[in-house]
Amino acid sequence: MPLPEPLVRLVEELQRLPGIGPKSAQRLAFHILKTPREETDRLAHAVREVKERVTYCSVCNNITESDPCVYCRSDARDHRLICVVEEPQNVSAVEKTREFKGVYHVLMGALSPLQGIGPDDLKIKSLLARIGNGVAEVILATNPTVEGEATAIYLARLLKPLGIHRRDHDAEGDGRAARGLVSRCRGSLSLVGRARRDACRRPPDLLSPGFGAWTLAW
């Protein structure tokens, strides 16, 4: 017997969520069907409220209820120091350390030639625009993945001619140079007392025509 049309539509919409396949979507749909009405109403209200009240900061791209966000409008933060992260959730991870006192810039992703994500798909131009407003130092805190490393190297090459001091996150934690930086520690970002030397050579994983083209075209 075919599923009722409303249930089919719910399964189809749930499948659009990241990491949710057809079977998982169907399980969730049947779970929602069995859930009491007041609970599903709360879920629907929470989804609507997020879309109506939460937005992205026009300065740093972090999620916020008011624009600009609490970090960008705070006089207590050091606006000469910018920590660059991939996603808004990375901001929360850095804040949990209670050690970083600067501001943030969220790229909304990372460079990925295989997925067709290039510099124009990230918030790189707005980062460069911010650097002209008295920024003295940039911390590159991209994730310790191939894509994160590619993004950090690309940004490092852009920042170097501007004379901006930068610190890279040390994904390997091997302390190959000696400055403070942002590093992965037990699943979250933690400020530690070591840094990586300038990454100017391209790692083997990044030997792709796309990465080189982005570097030259910017």
Can you characterise this structure?
Helix content is 37%, strand content 16%. Strands 4-3-5-6 form a 4-stranded parallel β-sheet. A two-stranded antiparallel sheet has the order 1-2. Strands 7-8 form a two-stranded antiparallel sheet. The chain has 7 helices and 8 strands; from the N terminus they run αααβββαβαβαβββα. It has helices at 5-15, 22-34, 37-53, 88-95, 124-131, 146-159, 209-217, and strands at residues 55-56, 63-64, 78-85, 102-106, 137-140, 165-168, 181-185, 188-192. It folds into 2 domains: 22-52; 79-217, Dna Topoisomerase Vi A Subunit, Chain: A, domain 2, CATH 3.40.1360.10. Helix 1 crosses helix 2. Strand 3 (78-85), helix 4 (88-95) and strand 4 form a beta-alpha-beta unit. It has 218 residues and is an alpha/beta fold.
Describe the structure concisely for a colleague.
This protein is an alpha/beta fold.
Mean pLDDT: 79
- Briefly, what CATH class of the largest domain? Alpha Beta
Give me the side-by-side strand order of the main sheet: 4-3-5-6
Q: If you compute it from the alpha carbons, what radius of gyration comes out, rounded to the nearest whole angstrom?
A: 21 Å
CATH fold call of the largest domain: Dna Topoisomerase Vi A Subunit, Chain: A, domain 2
| Helical content band | 25-40%
Number of strands: 8
CATH architecture of the largest domain: 3-Layer(aba) Sandwich
Structural category: alpha/beta
Count of helical segments? Answer: 7
Q: What percentage of amino acids are in beta strands?
A: 15-25%
pLDDT < 50 stretches: 170-218
Characterize the largest beta sheet: strand count, sense, and whether it forms a barrel: 4 strands, parallel
Distance between the termini: 56 Å
- Structural domains: how many: 2
Order of helices and strands: HHHEEEHEHEHEEEH
Per the principal axes of the C-alpha atoms, what is the gross shape? elongated
